[in-house]
Amino acid sequence: MSPEWLLYSGRPIASSLVLAHQAEFDRLAALTPAARDTAFVAGDPSYDRMRRSRHLRAQYREALGVAPHQKLVTITSTWWRNSLLGSQPSLFREVVGALDRDRYRVAGLVHPNIWHGHGPWQIRTWLADCQRAGLLLPPPAEGWQAVLLASDLVVGDHGATTAYGACLDIPLLLAAFPESDVAPESVGELLGATAPRLNSREPLDVQIERAVRTYRPGSFDDVAALVTSRPGEAAARLRRLFYEHLRLTEPASGPIVPLIPVSAATGHAAPAAPANFIVCESREDRFHLTRYPADVDIDRSGSAKFSNAALTAREDHPDESLRQRAAIVFSASATGDAALADLLRRHPHATVAASSDGRVATRSGQLIETTFTDPEVAAALVFESVLRGLRLPREATVSRGDEVLLGAFAPSRVFDLGS
User: What are phi and psi for residue 266, nearest 5 degrees?
Assistant: First the structure.
């Protein structure tokens, strides 16, 4: 916020200086008043994405190979000499070596400046033994968010990733915290005053186990409140600012805030599951499904073929507006009654939910077992029967394009959505 970083010959360098919090604006106005008029409080887009993606935690853990009974400990390091990696490079292997590998998994999140400054080969060479012992080391672009959301404990320093862990209400131990490198009245300063420190004179496994066991949810609420004063608004505010600079008319539709893809947990990009408008035509035990992409923004109001269409979306679809409007919502990996109940609770407009273990639930309380392996297909057939008040056949033949699918249905029991 000081003039030497923001001004050149007394004039602001930037046309717009984007800030996450109103408190930062106030500090800027006091420290560098010449840059005050360029300041724009937008919020934090990275934090917004992670908050929206929290419901995919179980899927991130599965993609990372973390078993339900295991705890994921994530070591985070910012850059430069006083960072965790710069000052305590051995801590990675110390943590990996100290923990029971059947009870814990360990991940490392290394700042992009280290990856780009030293190169991926050097980073992986430094941590090669840790990786051989099971350290998860995602690339710097997107994998870190998924790992953080999957974590049970963060061991970190004064960097932003550590602060994000606190904001996501994850137990935390500070291993490195150079007071002189932290700006006064910042998120980092508050984190340092709130989070417990790692004690070099006590066994790591004892400290980690205690930190997880004794953590009280909400301990870092004050830190989270200081990260952004515009929660959930960053995408819209940033887009508005960009279009103003471009002197272009901003699109009428709302901006997309993509969820963190599950594939990012393993570092492999995969296309997002599309949302569809499904038209289902039925005759006794034979069904024909026609799917139309719902992601394209076109006017469908005058088309008769969409009059009986049902909107379907997978729970990790990036467009929240489509997911929340979907009549059919399904999961590619979640299983069990609790997952179905969670899907319906989080998607109040959905009539039907399906999970990957062949179960379909209706909001009215039916639970149906099916042998169809595609949860979208199974849910579409159940939705059709509910919509038309028809009895679901025991066996069904479904045509979808050139594909013919065979499956069976068996009403199971009354489904309790719960609270």
Answer: -105, 0
